[in-house]
Predict the structure.
Amino acid sequence: MKDKYGREIDYLRISLTDRCNLRCVYCMEEEGNTFFKDEERLTKDEICKIVSASAKLGIKKIRLTGGEPLVRNDIMELMKGINNIPGIEEIYLTTNGILLEEKVEVLKKAGLKGVNISLDSLKEEMFQKLTRLGDLKKVLSAIDKCLELGIKVKLNTVMIKGMNEDEILDFVNLTLDKDMDVRFIELMPIGVGSKYKGVSNEEIIKLINENYKDIEEVKRNKNGGPATYIKLKDGKGKIGFISAISNCFCEDCNRIRITSEGFLKQCLHFNYGIDLRNLIRSGASEEEILNVIKDNIFNKPEKHLFLEKSKDKELKFMNQIGG
Ligand code: SAM
Ligand code: SF4
């Protein structure tokens, strides 16, 4: 369905958990993070109820995220359940890749179409420093396994000043050898993210232009999401830029989000939305759930105001919202 600004909203991002097996410095604290209790998170059946109502309103694409979605034990059943809902055409996953290699084959059978893997460093030591807990080898072998299985891979990377910014060209070079897109995501001032300074995509593009001669523009597809792409002439994959801060893409926004405790968020930046868990647990019918989702889609804010002061600004961390 369309919101009041005429945008077609057909994409739902679902956070399966706020828990994570890593502690990336710009996303979570090293210690003292607070998590929801198991009973506070939506169950598989509750998630499927929401997806089913959303599909009737025109949601076709689902992304499972978190926290780390693969730490959730019922991920396979969830994927199968969502895949069986009429109207759902594509299911994707955003993951840090640590548990992916061992699960991807079964996930593919359950309906997984593609994965976004978050990876911010190709150097063991920096990877450790940025994630605090990660094992780089596991992520690298998960990438190869996905490509082997024909699962579409997009690598998402966040560049931080004074940390991994010397690896920009190493990430660009990955698109020469591997058939996957590498996307640079600008750091957003959300939660602990506001303690760090990101590298703007403008700076990254400048560096790429200084180092490569043959760069091709890739035409922007209106439904292709927030990234703009270029490609190295001999590259197998594309290089993408997601610039929520320096280049607002709100006019093409097609998404809503559900947090792991069942809050429907209309926009990443604002705390607007509705507690669907409470509605479901108080016995609401599918029609009532559908009407509430419909109202929230219709009233999606026109644009984010990351660079302005706003009393309704989202104060949660990314692992709690679902990145
Ligand atoms: N754990 C999974 C992962 O890392 O892919 C899924 C959830 S994570 C919150 C999703 C994405 O959000 C990751 O690519 C991560 O880099 C990104 N992210 C987290 N905090 C961010 C911030 N402050 N600004 C920009 N991206 C952020
Ligand atoms: Fe976990 Fe993803 Fe946040 Fe890293 S970015 S701490 S992997 S939720």
In short: The pocket of S-adenosylmethionine (ligand 1) is lined by residues 20, 26-27, 65-66, 68, 94-96, 118, 156, 158, 185, 187-188, 190, 193, 318-319, 323 (CB under 6 Å).
